[in-house]
Structure formats: structure tokens, C-alpha cells
């Protein structure tokens, strides 16, 4: 009975199949041969009702297979091919089902049919694999085509793209610097919780009970600090992370932990109740990490933050958790600024955290991200960081940018170059020393030209600088940056007649190359700065000279290498009659006469 059903299913499937092509299977020499011999293989047990014959089964296999081969041909994707495979060769696939019919055949017939079906199956596998290779290749090609990038297309730069927050940039840069030195970053909430117990924040860090930070006025307590239970608070410093890490890790280890801290301060330009600190801790076998290692590490770190020429100074200080302790200053814009606290970890702290101070030792440091960002970017109000004004955020170059390096170099260089000129002048005079050795380096080494400011605008990145285009009789006007923002409006500058020091090496001023210097008279405390005035009749490009000094101007390199400005500028002054003089003799042009300024008695530079 089952056979009958199967047979009718088979016939039905033959019937429902669209016209099929027998070629693939008939081409199989083996199956063809067997098909011809099929008559004598007919089973003797066949009855009228039970008419499964080898011929009929082979016919079905032929038709099923040819349909399968057609489907393989038609499949265009790997998933379609997989479906064909399952439909024909899978456990419930059509060919597999035909195998089931073999039960009704005689032993010899089974053998022949089994072999034939196996051959068909193998052939189908081969065809499927071949097709799969082709399709996969096509799919890969199509994918590569769709992902093709035209590297010759022009780039898009700074067109409304977002900017990093200056604090994020500082935290990222600082953390990266330590990661490169082998420190692990600790930021997981469980390792660096903002809600801390008094124990982690103070006690384990060796802070005595009367330490000012423990005062109700200074910390945000979440539970009563005088109550019977464990006291909780918002952490006042990231040093608390040190204790968690000492408890958790086995030395040696080094960690860097950036995080938010809270202090109960009145908010003003330099204080915020929430700010960011970065903590480092390095623990090794006792004696391996010295104070020298700490100083070297801190110095390297500060160079990474402020640029390689930063000057660093260590001062002895006190922190309860380090002994000895130091505070560290950097010289920025001519001033020493405190930026960091550090020291060798106090053995009592190690002991409390379960590290044997006889066996291990190390150093720690901590600093505020806001302070770094304020110093580096010249930000004067800490509140600017948090008010989310996009115009504020757009101003800051990223550490990775070329602009940042130029920016830092410019900010470090600005005062470095100016200071010696102004400071050394009175010193030399007091000592009675001759500033110009042997009279060789005199005012004639400077190429001072009359010019007119044809364009002036505010420097985009430096608060104190104007950029000017000045016509000094050359083919193109010169681009010069001057720190005049605090001393005159841009309108006053536009169209002004000025004197330009024209043989100075171009210098990048916060990213803008400046090709010279505009001469000004200035009070020694910089409270007043004014442009000096060439005589009216002098055309653009006219050279300014001093009688008795008629040498040729020096080259840009000579000026730089021989530090000529240091030697020449101290003698450049406005005399009591409002005339600009060098060593007492007036600066003048042929057509315009003497150079003037109403800043009598002031220096010029
Ligand atoms: N935690 C200190 C503070 O908030 C900063 C500090 C100083 C951290 C010295 C240290 C250190 O790790 O060694 O002022």
C-alpha cells in the first residue's frame, strides 16, 4: 500500500514538474547501461498491485535529478544553492526519498539502483560545489564593487564636523601617555566609584581625622560623618582609586585612573563643585622605583602635554599619602603654574591596603584635568567647560592636529622671545656693560621698512593676536601677526602706516606664519603699547636708517643665530622729544624724516 502511495506521489511529482531535461542523467554511462539491463532485473515477487520496477524508479530518479540540475543552473546566490541541496540531497530531499522505494525491489535491483543513485548524488554534489564556487566569486566581486573607494576624490575638511571637548582631549591625551608607558587604565565604576566611604577617601590614605578635606564644609557627605555607621560621601579626589587597586592587584602594577571628583566649593572663575582628576600609581618591588623615576615620569608626561620645550620645576610639599611629596610647576607664558601633586607612596598606605611595605614601594601622582586645559588653552573661566556652548568648544585644536603643536609652540615661544629683550635692557645698563660688542652689530643689521596695513583681522585661535597684511613695497603684502588686541581696535589698525622689521625669519604664531614684526613703543609693564609713526612723506617700502650706521641688513639666519635682536633692541627708544632713536640717534627715512611716537621715554620693540 505504501508503495502505491509513494508511486502516486512520484507520478504526481513527475506530472507537476515543468518540462524537464533528461540529458544530464542519461549522459551518465553507468546509469544508462543499468537502465538497459533493467528488464532482467525485475523482481520476481512483483504483483499486479505492487508494480514498482527498477525501470520506473530509474525513470523517477532521472526526472527528479534533471529537475535538480536545472534548479542548480538557475540558482544565483549561495542561499538559493543551499536550498537546492537540501531539497534534493537533504535528509528529506527528493533523491533521498527515492532511496526509500528500494525496499520493494529485489536484492540485485537494489544494488544496481543504489549504485546509480549514489552516482547521481555524487554528480549533484560536484555540480553544486562548482556552482557554489562561481556564485561565491560573483558575490565577492559584487561586494567589492559596491564597497569600492575612489582614493583620488578630494577630502572634506572641517565642514561643520563636531569637535572634541577640551576636557575630553586632555583626559585622553594624559591617559594615552601613561598607557604608552605600560599603565593600565582604570575606569570601571566598581574600581573607581564616585560614591566613596570615608575609609577609601581618607582613612586608608593616611589622612588624619582633623584633615581639612574631612570637614563638612569641604566634602559632600551622604551620611552623617559623626554617625555610628560607615560614612559615605562623593569622592573628593581620585586618590581613593589607589586603595581599591592596591587591594585588588598583586604588585608589580601601574595604573592610570581618570575620574570625576566633588568638592563643596563656591563656584567662581577658578572653582567648580564637580571637576576631573587623573591619578597614577606605580608599585614595584622595593627599591625598583625611585624618586628619580617619579621625576622622570612626570617630566616626560608634562612634555607630552605641553610640548618638548616646557620648563618643569619640582617643589617639596606635603600630602598625607606620600612621603616625600612634591608639587610640580610648569613655566607657561612666562609664569610658573602649579599643575600636579606627587610623591613616593607612604609605607603606611601600602600596609593598610594589604601590600607589604618591606617588599614593595612605588610612586603616585594626581592632577586636575580642568587646570591643564585652562593653562594649555588660555581659558580663564572654569565654568566655560560646562555650559555646553558650541562656540566655546569649536575653538580648540586637538592634540593630534598639526595646529595643536603650532599652538603650543606659539604659546611657549611668545613670551620666551619677548622676555629677554625687555628684561635684559635695564640689567645691562645697570651693569654698565656694552650691549653691542665691538660696534659690529648695530641698527643697520635690521631691515626696517615703512608700510601700510592693507588688511587686519583677529587671529582665529589666539585671543591676543591680530593678523595683518602689510604693504611694504613688495610684490605681495606681508602677513604678520602682532599681539595688539589688548591695545587697539582692529579699525585703528586698518590703513595705518607702520614700521616693519622685515628681515626676520618667518615664525608660526598659533598656526599662522608671521613674516616680520611691527614696531611699537611700549611701557615696561605692557600697560600701554602703541605703533610708532613713520614720517608722512615716506612711501611704502622706504628703508628706515640711522645716521652713521650704513651697513647692509643681516640675513634672517644671522639675526636668529647671533641673537642680534637681543643686542640691538635694548637701545631702541623714544626720546624725550617723542622721536624714535637708536643709541640716541633718530631713525629716519629720506622722504619722511624722523620716526615719531608720543610715548616719550618708552622702549621700542
Ligand atoms: N589627591 C591630591 C589632591 O586632590 C592630588 C595628589 C597629590 C594625588 C599627590 C597623588 C599624589 O597621587 O601623590 O589634591
From TrEMBL:
Transmembrane segments: none
Comp. bias intervals (Basic and acidic residues): 417-427
Entry annotated with the keyword Aminoacyl-tRNA synthetase: yes
Keyword tags: Aminoacyl-tRNA synthetase, ATP-binding, Ligase, Magnesium, Metal-binding, Nucleotide-binding, Protein biosynthesis, RNA-binding, Signal, tRNA-binding
Coiled coil (residue ranges): none
Leader sequence residues: 1-19
SUPFAM superfamilies linked to this entry: Class II aaRS and biotin synthetases (SSF55681), Nucleic acid-binding proteins (SSF50249), tRNA-binding arm (SSF46589)
The protein's assembly and partners: Tetramer of two alpha and two beta subunits.
Protein name, UniProt field: Phenylalanine--tRNA ligase alpha subunit
Source organism: Triparma laevis f. longispina
Amino acid at each position: 500500500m505504501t508503495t502505491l502511495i509513494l508511486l502516486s506521489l512520484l507520478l504526481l511529482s513527475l506530472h507537476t514538474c515543468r518540462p524537464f531535461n533528461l540529458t544530464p542523467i542519461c549522459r551518465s554511462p553507468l546509469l544508462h547501461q543499468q537502465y538497459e539491463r533493467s528488464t532482467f532485473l525485475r523482481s520476481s515477487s512483483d504483483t499486479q498491485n505492487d508494480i514498482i520496477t527498477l525501470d520506473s524508479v530509474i525513470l523517477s530518479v532521472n526526472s527528479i535529478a534533471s529537475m535538480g540540475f536545472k534548479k542548480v543552473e538557475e540558482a544565483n546566490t549561495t542561499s538559493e544553492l543551499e536550498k537546492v541541496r537540501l531539497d534534493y540531497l537533504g535528509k528529506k530531499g527528493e533523491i533521498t526519498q527515492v532511496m526509500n522505494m528500494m525496499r520493494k525491489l529485489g536484492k540485485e535491483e537494489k544494488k544496481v539502483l543504489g549504485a546509480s543513485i549514489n552516482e547521481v548524488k555524487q554528480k549533484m554534489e560536484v555540480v553544486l560545489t562548482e556552482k557554489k564556487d562561481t556564485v561565491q566569486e560573483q558575490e565577492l566581486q559584487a561586494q567589492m564593487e559596491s564597497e569600492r573607494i575612489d582614493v583620488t576624490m578630494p577630502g572634506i575638511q572641517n565642514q561643520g564636523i563636531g569637535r572634541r571637548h577640551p576636557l575630553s582631549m586632555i583626559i585622553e591625551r594624559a591617559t594615552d601617555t601613561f598607557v604608552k608607558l605600560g599603565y593600565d587604565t582604570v575606569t570601571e565604576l566598581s574600581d573607581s566609584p564616585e560614591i566613596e566611604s570615608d575609609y577609601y577617601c581618607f582613612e586608608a590614605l593616611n589622612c588624619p581625622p582633623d584633615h581639612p578635606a574631612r570637614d563638612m564644609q569641604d566634602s559632600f557627605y551622604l551620611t552623617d560623618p559623626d554617625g555610628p555607621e560607615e560614612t559615605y560621601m562623593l569622592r573628593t579626589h581620585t586618590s581613593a582609586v589607589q586603595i581599591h587597586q592596591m587591594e585588588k592587584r598583586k604588585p608589580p602594577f601601574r595604573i592610570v585612573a581618570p575620574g570625576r571628583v566633588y568638592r563643596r566649593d563656591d563656584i567662581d572663575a577658578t572653582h567648580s563643585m564637580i571637576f576631573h582628576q587623573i591619578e597614577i600609581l606605580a608599585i614595584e618591588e622595593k627599591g625598583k622605583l625611585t624618586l628619580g623615576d617619579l621625576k622622570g615620569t612626570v617630566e616626560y608626561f608634562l612634555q607630552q602635554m605641553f610640548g618638548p620645550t616646557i620648563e618643569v620645576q619640582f617643589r617639596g610639599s606635603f600630602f598625607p599619602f606620600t612621603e616625600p611629596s612634591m608639587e610640580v610647576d610648569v613655566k607657561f607664558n612666562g609664569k610658573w603654574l602649579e599643575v600636579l601633586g606627587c610623591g613616593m607612596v607612604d609605607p603606611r598606605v601600602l600596609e593598610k591596603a594589604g601590600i607589604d611595605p618591606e617588599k614593595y614601594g612605588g610612586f603616585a601622582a594626581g592632577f586636575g584635568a580642568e587646570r591643564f586645559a585652562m593653562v594649555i588653552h588660555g581659558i580663564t573661566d572654569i565654568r566655560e567647560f560646562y555650559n555646553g556652548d558650541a562656540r566655546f568648544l569649536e575653538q580648540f585644536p586637538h592634540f593630534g592636529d598639526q595646529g595643536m603643536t603650532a599652538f603650543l609652540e606659539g604659546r611657549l615661544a611668545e613670551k620666551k622671545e619677548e622676555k629677554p629683550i625687555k628684561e635684559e635692557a635695564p640689567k645691562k645698563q645697570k651693569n654698565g656693560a656694552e650691549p653691542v660688542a665691538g660696534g659690529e652689530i648695530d641698527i643697520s643689521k635690521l631691515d626696517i621698512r615703512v608700510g601700510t596695513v592693507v588688511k587686519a583681522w583677529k587671529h582665529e585661535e589666539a585671543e591676543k593676536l591680530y593678523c595683518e597684511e602689510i604693504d611694504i613695497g613688495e610684490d605681495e603684502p606681508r602677513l604678520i601677526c602682532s599681539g595688539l588686541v589688548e591695545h587697539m581696535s582692529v579699525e585703528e589698525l586698518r590703513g595705518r602706516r607702520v614700521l616693519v622689521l622685515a628681515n626676520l625669519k618667518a615664525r608660526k604664531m598659533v598656526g599662522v606664519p608671521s613674516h616680520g614684526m611691527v614696531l611699537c613703543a611700549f611701557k615696561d609693564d605692557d600697560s600701554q603699547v602703541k605703533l610708532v609713526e613713520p614720517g608722512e612723506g615716506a612711501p611704502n617700502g622706504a628703508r628706515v636708517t640711522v645716521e652713521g650706521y650704513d651697513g647692509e641688513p643681516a640675513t634672517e639666519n644671522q639675526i636668529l643665530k647671533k641673537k642680534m635682536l637681543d643686542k640691538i633692541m635694548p637701545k631702541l627708544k623714544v626720546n624725550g622729544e617723542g622721536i624714535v632713536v637708536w643709541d640716541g640717534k633718530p631713525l629716519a627715512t629720506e622722504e619722511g624724516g624722523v620716526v615719531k611716537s608720543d610715548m616719550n621715554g618708552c622702549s621700542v620693540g
